[in-house]
Amino acid sequence: MENKNKVYKTVMLVILTAFLTFMITAFSMYSYFSNNSFITLSGINNSTGSISGKNNSELEKYLKKIKATIDKYYLWNDKIDEEKLQTGAIKGYVEGLEDEYTEYIPADEMKEYKENIVGNFVGIGIYMRADEDLGRVVVYYPIPDSPAEKAGIKAGDLIIKVNGTEYTSNDFENISNYIKGEEGSTVNILVERNGERLSFDIVREKINTNPITIKMLDKEIGYLKLPSFDEGTAKDFEEKVKELKSEGAKSLIIDLRNNGGGIVTEATDIANFLLEKGKTIISTVDNQDKKEITYSKNDAIFTMPITVLVNENSASASEILACSLQDNERAKIIGTKTYGKGIIQTLLSLNDGSGLKITTEEYYTPKGTTIHEVGITPDEEVKLPDTVKSIYAVKEEEDTQLQKAIELLER
What we know:
single chain; alpha+beta; 2-enoyl-CoA Hydratase, Chain A, domain 1; six-stranded antiparallel beta sheet
């Protein structure tokens, strides 16, 4: 992370979860309320900066004392931003839970936060990184079939100007604000490639940041790579499997390696496509010990043999899908032990536009075991060879895990 050319993870309307979406911030599953459902965060009064609530609250009294002390002694008290103080106080209170998955999201960050969860963005479809040696923002690579790729943007292009204004690597954190815009609008990007400057007028579109990729392997085996569980992933999965079947696939490999999770219902919907009616997918327990069981609702629409690839970065919704297939003896799991995130977060929308992502439930496998901080042990533990330089870019000839999956399907 100290490397000058490090890849920053940036969520944006156009640049899309920069570099790898499996990273820890992605190791969360979300179920969230509709736009018409809110809870009120009692105590926030934006107009006065006061903290209301229970009259005899010790917390209220203490915060009022702190505020009075700041007002009396702070050198630059005429420059105090009450809204920032409130936000800091709330964030600090929530952080006191010492739960890395629970956090307060200010109102001005909620839109972008929700878009990150959903995984659909309006933009041109590129991943970027800041190259301090070159002093430029560099295109890491364009999303396949994105407006950027179709226009001719290539990996390694140096972004020089956006709509006529020049930017450098120092502008990395903000450049997405100048590239993003309304769907159907046009942005001009000037890039430098091999010493030549090229200008592109690109129409912004809605882009799926993490599309499922598929291909046919030998022996009539269909392969699907699921990078995350975003909104619409289950529907996309269904369409992609049908496409593979039309190409002759009689068995499937589902690759969940480096998939950090996403929306729970997308994973359970996929399990529903693959399991017989009435099978347990997962069960959850809340802080009142209330247990809910999710069963497969319909007969399986895909009944061909399946193997599933996982690794240490397979988490949350990935683990839900994997364990549901493993415990129901529907598929063999291959690879290395999974991450072990067996808790679910809910994103609550508050009445002032802010939000609280909070851990609400723990989930259990169909056989009733917990995987939180334990992970799922594959049926076939297979490590990649030492020659593999990165687990995120494995050549097929070196992919021992994929080879084992193929071997099992051929038996």
